[in-house]
Each structure stands twice: as structure tokens, then as C-alpha cells.
Amino acid sequence: MHPADPRHKRDDPHQVRFDPEVEIILPARQRHAVAGPAPPSDYTVYSELNQCIRTEKQVKSQVDIHRTSVYTPYTIVTKRRVALNFNHRSTRRAVFLSTPALWEHGHGKNHPLKPERLKRTFELLEEYGAFAAPNVQVIAPPSATEDELALVHSRNYIEVVRVLSEGGAWTETREYISPMRYGFGSGDNPIFPEMYETESLKAGGSLTGAKLLVNGECDVAFSYSGGMHHAMASYASGFCVFNDPAIAIQWMVEQGLRVAYVDVDVHHGDGVEALFYDTDRVLTISLHQDGRTLFPGTGFVHDIGEGAGTGYAVNVPLLPDTDDETYLWAFNQIVPPLLERFAADVIVSQLGVDTHYKDPLAHIALTTAGQTALFEAFDALAPRWLALGGGGYNLDVVPRSWTLAFGVMSGQTFPDELPSGYRARYGGRWLRDHEEPPLSEAAREYVWQRTQDMVAEVKKVHRL
Ligand SMILES: [Zn+2]
Which of 74, 143, 378, 390 could staple 265 via S-S, CB 3.0–4.6 A? Predict the structure, then answer.
């Protein structure tokens, strides 16, 4: 059944409905206010949100003050330029899944997936006082059990990971393990001490978040060590050993829920897509840098699922140098209408922040402002929201981006100046970017033109 089928529509009072009259305000760029080309006619660019409010004095009382803080220049507005509350739950009960055990072991000194990314993020949030808010809980998750890992992984692979982690080379059935056969031993996926414990703990974090959401114990859960979206059923790939998004999703599907997965990591969410490619119970959407220019080299517009899952895999490949405006335009054209049509009970988002323009491994050009607008879109669209981490390899950027993400989830706005202790240890000054990506207008314009064609094709393929 194609997701366009109206039989998929259900009445759920908890479902946040996407209003086609609503669009996401895109980040302003000075060029539109000065001499540059006029903004495309089907969306509106404001130089400042305040300007938008001034032009709508008569509806000022409807403006949600929380969302229009000077620190969050994005909001949801209607085409009539009315800022809406949009069922925003500033008192969402937010859980942050973390334990120091997550950053004790890693892939090695020269590997980009440094555990310090997690440690610094936790410290920055803590020093902002984020965990002291009355609607916030920090929960130390247990590791995923072998049975839980087996929700998506083969028993043989789980054993292989355990044996390699312990320094062994033979399975119980005396199979000699060739690490390369299971994706290990390459630069991407080295075998490291406590690998099994560390990686099953990440999966445990995401699964615990899913359980808390399903049991009604929170409204949003952030498993920031998760998002290991490249792992396959029987092999490791792209720094990922266990596919925690798929494990959490599969568990929720077995509870009878409809789950939509939206992956905004700069890399295609190939592992999650592959594990649900033939089912209509899970909608997977991935926005990523075009596979012709980046690992894992997959995720093209016409890859849409198979069998019962036809139409339930959605791919939005973006060109290198895609900036905030173009990215958010593409997101807004595709993701909200698909989520509305699918009517998910839970949205799982993979919030890799390697989309940042300073990321050393990829070439998309988002700023923290664009990333925050994405987080706010998820906040508005998700009835229940399981947020996962993912990529992001610039140690200066990742803690700031995920701090902004958890601020959106828990309804908190943090001062722009970084806390003094954090600054003293790690440097930096501001939470939000104060610079633009070094892109020429010609490059931005070229990407914008090409992106319109790509989005038109996605819409055609998925009947939007
Ligand atoms: Zn990535």
C-alpha cells in the first residue's frame, strides 16, 4: 500500500497535524535585504523575525514568546505571517540519556568518532544548568541485552562482536572469525577494548528512550550517543557496530506503533533504510549529501523501498555547499507532508550534526542557526519524539549543536556566551555561530537551482 493511500489516515488526538498553511521561516541572509536576487516566490525570507512581528502588530498576542526569543530567530509562521504556538509543549518532559561509561572507550586516538564529543556535550549542558530544569531528567541507561540486539542483528554477528571485543578469534562453534568479513579492522571500524560494552550501551540508551516514550514517562528522549545508522544486520560499517535506531524502531513496531524515522545526518542512513526497506510499518526519510560525493554512496531519489515497503523509503540527496536556506526549504517541502500522510505515533530523528559547514568529513554548509531550525521543526512535528545523536566530527561544533538541540527539546534557551568553566577548558566564546560559511553567491545560487529540480523529482516519485 502506498503511503498516499487514505486508509493510512487515522484519528489520533495526540497527533500533531501538519497544517499546509504553515511553513518554516528560513534563516535570513543579508543579500535579500540589499541587492541580491529576490527570494524564490514560494517561500518567504525575513531579515529578522522581529520585523515579521512588527508587520503583524494586530496578531502580536498570538506570538509565542518562548519561540521568538532573540536566540532563536526561527519560528513557525503561516503564509499570512502569523507566528503560531503550533501545539508547542514548552513543558515537554524531556529525558537525557547519559552515563560517563559512554565516553570511557572509543575507536582510538586518531579516529574521528571521539568519545569526547559526548563528554563535552554533557558538560556544556550541565554548566548551562540544563539538567536542573523541573521537566528534565538525566537517566543512565542499561546496556542492550543480547536479545534486544537480536531485534535486528544476527546472533552470529552479536557473538562475533563480543569475541573480537575480548580479543578472541573463535566463536563457540569453532568458527574462525575473519574481522574483515564483518566490517571490522578497517580504518572506519577498528576493534577496540570494551567495544561490545560501549556499543551495546549506546543501543541501550536509544532503546531506553523508546521504552520511556511508549510507557508515557516522557515526551521526548535524547540518546545523544546513538544514531549509529550505518550498521547492518551482520556487519559493522561507517563507525557503527550496532544499529541503535533500528533496534529502538523494531522494538516500538513490536509494541504496535507506527514509526517514522527522519535522518538529517550528512551521510545517508543506509543501515536503517535497509533494515526496513520492505515494510510499510516504518517510514524512513534521509536527507544527506549526495552519494556520488560522499560515503556510503547510496540514497538516491529513486530508491523508494520494495515490496510492501514501496514508497516507504524516501531519499533526499543534497549537493555539497547546500546552505541553511536551501536545506530547510527542501526539508519543508518533503518531510512535513510525508509525516502528515504517514500519521506516525512516534518520530525517531537521527540528529547527526556533521551537516555543519566546519565539519571535517563532509561538505554541506549548515550553521547552528539552520540546525536549530531543523530541531524546532522536529519539535513541532513529533507527537512523541525519540531523538538520537549521530555524526559530527568538529569538537568545537558538536557540543554546541547538541546543546541547542536539547534546549529545543526541553523548552530552554541558553545564553549565547559559553559558560566560563567550559570556555576555560575548551576555548570558544559563543554557543551560536557568529560567522557564515565561506560560500560565494554563485555557489549558493547554483545549489539552490539544482535542489529545486531534485525536490521536484522526489515529490513526483512520492506523489506529493
Ligand atoms: Zn554522518
Answer: 390
Of 214, 392, 361, nearest in space to 296 by CA: 361
Tell me, yes or no, if the pTM score tops 0.85.
no
Same domain for 79 and 226, yes or no, is no
Choose the final residue of a domain: 86, 113, 129.
86
Query: What is the arrangement of strands in the sheet containing 385-388, beginning at the earlier edge strand?
Result: 136-139, 94-97, 220-223, 385-388, 346-350, 259-263, 282-289, 313-318
Containing domain of residue 331, as a range? 90-141+204-461
What is the 101 CA–ligand 1 centroid distance (Å)?
22
> Is residue 230 annotated as part of the catalytic site, yes or no?
yes
Q: What is the mean pLDDT of residues 221-244?
A: 98
Per the CB < 8 A criterion, the answer to whether 318 and 289 are in contact is yes
* CA 354 / ligand 1 centre spacing (Å): 6
pLDDT-derived band at 186 (thresholds 50, 70, 90) equals confident
> 3-class SS at 453?
helix
Examine residue 62 and state whether it is found in any structural domain, yes or no.
Answer: yes
- Angle subtended by helix axes 195-214 and 244-254, to nearest 10: 40
| Overall number of domains in the chain | 2
Distance between CA atoms of 371 and 322, rounded to whole angstroms? 13
CA of 401 to the centre of ligand 1 (A): 14
